[in-house]
Amino acid sequence: MIRTILKPTQATLQLQLPENLIGKLIEVIAFEIKESESGTEQQLEELKPSQLRGFLSAESSEAMHQHIHKSRAEWDI
């Protein structure tokens, strides 16, 4: 399963599928998520990098990297 949360900047999105989904029936849905600072942050914390391979927007990628960096910094304390 692939899942990502993003904020589009234009009306068209291009989706690149992994090879294992080619030729299979898939579902693509889009709906508005009401933004809340803590809610979006919590959703990003629950995602695993392996779930997002090749499908992160620049914003989601940056948020994930910041979360990982913060988590690893806590290990050094």
Stretches where pLDDT is under 50 for at least 5 consecutive residues are none
Largest sheet features: none
The assigned structural class equals mainly alpha
Rg result: 15 Å
Number of H- or I-type helical stretches: 2
The average pLDDT value, as a whole number, equals 78
Outline type:
globular
How much β-strand is present in the residues?
A: under 5%
Q: How do the helices and strands follow one another from N- to C-terminus?
A: HH
Number of domains: 1
Written account of the structure:
- The chain has helices at 37-46, 58-75.
- The mean pLDDT is 78.
- It has 77 residues and is mainly alpha-helical.
- The chain has one domain.
- The termini are far apart.
Brief descriptors of the model:
single chain; 77 residues; mainly alpha; 36% helix; 0% strand; globular
